[in-house]
Amino acid sequence: MSDLPTLLAECIAVVDETMDMLLSRTKDTEMRLFEAMRYSYTTGGKRLRPFLVTHSSALFSVDKNCAARVAAAVEFMHTYSLIHDDLPAMDNADTRRGKPSCHRQFDEATAILAGDALQALAFEVLSAPETHVDPAVRIELVRKLSQAVGVNGMCGGQMIDLLSERIDELNISKITRLQYLKTSKMFTFSSVAGSIMGKGSYRSYMALHDFAQEFGLAFQITDDLLDVEADQKKLCNAIGQDAVDGKATFVSVLGVERTRAHVSLLVDNAISALEVFDELANPLREAARYFTNCTN
Amino acid sequence: MSDLPTLLAECIAVVDETMDMLLSRTKDTEMRLFEAMRYSYTTGGKRLRPFLVTHSSALFSVDKNCAARVAAAVEFMHTYSLIHDDLPAMDNADTRRGKPSCHRQFDEATAILAGDALQALAFEVLSAPETHVDPAVRIELVRKLSQAVGVNGMCGGQMIDLLSERIDELNISKITRLQYLKTSKMFTFSSVAGSIMGKGSYRSYMALHDFAQEFGLAFQITDDLLDVEADQKKLCNAIGQDAVDGKATFVSVLGVERTRAHVSLLVDNAISALEVFDELANPLREAARYFTNCTN
């Protein structure tokens, strides 16, 4: 079996090529919209959600072209959420992955539309016959993705996140729910996608669901930890950007050491959930350790 | 047969009740998001797109509950587009149907998220088994709606509209394409929805498609005419708000009289397209005349 960095690089190459193929070109007036959409997904990124689609699909011997299309749809959806999150009214981020954010490179109106069109494109890709021969499989993918995005998913999580500065007491239970909605729901969709496409058993579906739910949470908390550590390195503040913004995170509530222990526990749980699978699930196991700095 | 005002009122009652049923409630932190979504679709509106879904479905004896769900999905989608169009970075509208626009009643971030979540909800409703027993029908609805919304639909049209102030020459051909994308595509989806659900013939599908394409264009141009006439009544300016904004419209290019003649021609074409249907299509015919002021 290939090592993780090779598999990650392979996944990036395949999903990026697929996204380019799926975003049809135009030379007409609305070209600016295509450019903003393309700009936003070509700014790099780990393509972790596509990786989950790809390697959950491999467990069920799903056709690689079908898996690549679903992986691209997930990344289109993720890209929309990043564009809108960066807007001045939201996180007001001038840069994303070291490049100007979409609204800085283009303008706010174009960024709003690019996000909207990327969400629609994700559903368009999932619904096309090329994605899966069985319409019942395609509609199940659409249904699960729409649930992962809407009020009970990413959008709901982002709403809580925005409100969290005003909430007096954001305890561990509430922060867990926030991150579960904002991050884990998309991880979960990406991981069960393989089981849906491959018509896996209920047991295998739930194994991937539970894996992704815990991994998503661990991934998000690791992000918070990295924020704090970056700030500590800068020697300018020891509590992290989100704490400065007034946002409660696991780190601000539990402290660094207990948070690290919590991440480690979540990753153990995530990997335990995969025990129904053989070594074909190793890329998922290794990704969970790698992206949460739990490799040793 | 009931008269048009009665049918319109019936449609509003059914679709509003269905939307309330489909937008699940919560008492959790993200309640603000639900409130913004509900606020935005309860500000009134003609529910013209749901009317097209309802009465195209009646042509094929589609189950009324199924039609009501698709009608609600279309109105959720339409509501998302209105919320985002009103944003400061877009049309910067403080009011919508006489009430504060979503971002004025709540805030910009909430309005962006409410639009995003309404788009996802539209697809979630279409993909649910309750909407149609046949997954192939549901996925076709999702596919057509996603195409009507994305870069080659509403979002593309809105992008051209925003850019139109900068375009030196916006001729009738380009304005037609803009309105076709921005308005007709959603009209078209709403009208072919009945044929898709009722598994109508290709001929009936195309009849509804052609009807809606012409009606959508006529409807949008009527809106431009009303803008001009409202301004003329105010005696403060004779060329209309969009002309003031630098946007080219049919009225600014053709003048009022020739524009009226053009609308009349489009409505005739729309109604001609329906000749394959009997008097069951009368509500569609009457709506096309009524909403374009071509009743006499």
Automatic annotation (TrEMBL), chains A, B:
Listed GO MF terms: metal ion binding; prenyltransferase activity
GO cellular component, one term: cytoplasm
Keyword set, alphabetical order: Isoprene biosynthesis, Magnesium, Metal-binding, Transferase
Necessary cofactors: Mg(2+)
The keyword Transferase is assigned to this record: yes
Keyword Magnesium: yes
Pfam families hit by this protein: polyprenyl_synt
GO biological process, one term: terpenoid biosynthetic process
Alphabetical list of PROSITE patterns matching this protein: POLYPRENYL_SYNTHASE_1, POLYPRENYL_SYNTHASE_2
Family: Belongs to the FPP/GGPP synthase family.
Protein name in UniProt: Geranyltranstransferase
Source organism of the structure: Candidatus Endolissoclinum faulkneri L5
